[in-house]
Structures
1.
Amino acid sequence: DVQLVESGGGSVQAGGSLRLSCTASGLTRYDSDMGWYRQAPGRDCDLVATIASDGITKYYGTSVEGRFTISRADSGSTVHLQMDSLRPEDTGLYHCTTSIRLVPYWGQGTQVTVS
């Protein structure tokens, strides 16, 4: 089974930084796009950032562009999200996602709280 495990969340003051990581397992190759979504209470799930299998093509949501950086490592099985200049509105449960042959997979999420 494909599994995505996130780590790196926590509590930080506004203006601070956090680095999230997501490790995928259960595949022989890690050549699918990967991304991060966040879910805040009472709000729709927001797409934060995605990164293609080439590790070069990236997309950022408008609210995080210029502050967050997505990257891949470990032959594509790990994706990082460097979050700088954090704001209270960045608070939420951050999920790592990927899609394998049109089947979506989500991790359990890691909580980020900015005060």
2.
Amino acid sequence: VQLVESGGGLVQPGGSLRLSCQTSGLSFVNYAFKWHRQAPGQARDLVALISSRGGTRDYADSVKGRFTISRDDAKETVYLQMNNLNPEATSVYSCSSGVRFTSWGQGTQVPVSS
């Protein structure tokens, strides 16, 4: 199983980014996915979750109304659309899935700074 995140990069406050989590070796349609983030010197936090068929989505309170998680089963890819980013969103963002969410990507960095 391999998960590969992409789409990170420097963004100004108020800006937007769309992160992608491309998978291989996983029966994609059967699994839920999570996006996490870890800010420098802090613990990793759960940002968003999407169920195996996309019917359920859940978000951390800090990102509700600004972040959207989605999935494209044909492309075996999960996305995280992030709008109105603030400097506190600066983190390494990573996705997880699989049995008990034990499969992880390497993460993608998102610095938010002017």
